[in-house]
């Protein structure tokens, strides 16, 4: 985590609000009250402060009846508060490799890293079924900072949903990284996988869909 930003936020309750919002597409103050042991006005004031400092924005969520509900969600600035395994130095190294060894060098290096990671995961993988391996992989990825969980949704089917990426800058500068992630999931789960990303403001959701 970025210690300067944490110092700027300054209150444990504000970090709890940010952590609660990270795994969602946005929550109202009332929903945050249900999740946290704080008063409505206490949470409202923290949200106003976080909004002022650029960590939250708001949108109006339509309701089945009545007026739209105001919902708080994270901005892109909040990403730096969470685990990062890749920094500017990583990008500088890949750029230097491209300058020295040619335009395909970064992709080759990333491919090699994911190949080794895939081999390591397949060696450690637990579970005789796709569902069991998916639960195991979600647990491993969650421990690596991806905020991952296994979901078997009645509409969207089984998936591993990730709400954070510690290698976001690699995904943005080298989109092939997403394909390498998908290939890794397919190898570990032993089935075809479809990778779907949803980004809006500070929202990041990456769903790996597969069949059981």
Key attributes of the depicted protein:
alpha+beta, Arc Repressor Mutant, subunit A, 2 domains, 4-stranded antiparallel β-sheet, 6 strands, 51% helix
Task: Please give a structural write-up.
The protein is an alpha+beta fold and 212 residues long. It has two domains: 3-81, Arc Repressor Mutant, subunit A (Orthogonal Bundle); 88-210, no CATH class. The protein is built from nine helices and six strands; from the N terminus they run H-H-H-H-E-E-H-H-H-E-E-H-H-E-E. A four-stranded antiparallel beta sheet has the order 3-4-6-5, covered by helices on one side. The chain has a two-stranded antiparallel sheet with strand order 1-2. The mean pLDDT is 93.
Summarize the structure.
This protein has 212 residues and is an alpha+beta fold. The protein is 51% helix and 19% strand.
Order of helices and strands: HHHHEEHHHEEHHEE
Instruction: Report mean pLDDT, rounded to a whole number.
Output: 93
* Rg from Cα: 19 Å
Helix/strand/pairing category: alpha+beta
State the end-to-end distance: 36 Å
Count the E strands. 6
Q: Which residue ranges are poorly predicted, with pLDDT under 50 across at least 5 consecutive positions?
A: none
Number of domains: 2
Largest sheet: 4 strands, antiparallel
User: How large is the share of residues in beta strands?
Assistant: 15-25%
Number of helices: 9
Shape: globular
Helix content: 40-55%
Question: For the largest beta sheet, what order do the strands appear in spatially?
Answer: 3-4-6-5
């Amino acid at each position: 985590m970025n210690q300067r930003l944490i110092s700027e936020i300054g209150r444990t309750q504000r970090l709890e609000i940010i952590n609660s919002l990270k795994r969602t597409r946005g929550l109202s103050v009332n929903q945050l009250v249900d999740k946290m042991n704080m008063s409505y006005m206490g949470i409202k004031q923290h949200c106003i402060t976080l909004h002022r400092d650029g960590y939250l924005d708001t949108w109006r969520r339509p309701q089945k009846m009545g007026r739209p509900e105001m919902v708080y969600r994270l901005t892109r600035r909040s990403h730096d508060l969470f685990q990062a395994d890749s920094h500017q130095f990583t990008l500088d190294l890949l750029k230097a490799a491209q300058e020295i060894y040619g335009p395909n060098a970064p992709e080759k290096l990333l491919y090699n890293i994911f190949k080794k990671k895939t081999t390591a995961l397949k060696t450690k993988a637990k579970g005789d079924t796709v569902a069991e391996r998916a639960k195991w992989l979600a647990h491993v990825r969650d421990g690596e900072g991806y905020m991952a969980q296994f979901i078997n949704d009645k509409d969207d089917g089984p998936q591993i949903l990730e709400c954070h990426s510690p290698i976001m800058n690699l995904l943005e500068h080298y989109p092939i990284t997403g394909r390498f992630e998908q290939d890794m999931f397919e190898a570990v789960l032993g089935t075809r996988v479809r990778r779907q990303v949803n980004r809006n403001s500070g929202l990041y959701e990456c769903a790996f869909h597969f069949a059981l």
